[in-house]
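go over this chain:
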Amino acid sequence: MDAADAAGRANQGRSSQVMKLRPLLLAGLAAGLAGPAIAQSCLSTAERTAFEVRALQSQLMVAALACQRDNDYNAFVRRFQGELASSYRTIEGHFRRNARERDAFITTLANVQSQDGIRQGSQFCGTVAPIFQLALAQPNAQALAELSMERNVLNPQTAPVCTGATPAAASARSPARASSGSRSAPRR
């Protein structure tokens, strides 16, 4: 047997092994890609609350910078320090397998809030200023989340709350809001 025959048989053996492993490799790849999508098809109630609180905090942060409301923002952070930290830990838990997705969410959230302020122009400060006092009057994170939804604070995390039903049924009941476009009037 010459070297060319030996190399050809070795390649055939490797090809055969790859062909046998191919379904396993494809299944692993599919699970890896689908896993995050499946995991994020709906949120727990605690996760929805955390995402809403984070959206409200982000909006108030942008307002503090754009509208010279540093004292109001600092009062908000001091008042809800525990709730804000807990919300962030919940968001970290949601993205536990992918820190890049968490960082991308936080960046997108800040950009969405900043762009909304730019779109509103001179009306932004007048629209957002009352939210500081409303936020400071809330008793807890759940109330902050409700305020965020009532005021249509933009939030790029639009996954519905899991209800034990299918995600499609949950989305019909979800308070999903557009992550772009300007904010509408408070819900009534």
Notes: Residues 14-39, 166-188 have pLDDT under 50 and may be disordered. The longest helix spans residues 3-39. Residues 144 and 160 are 18 Å apart (CA to CA). DSSP finds eight helices and no strands in the chain.
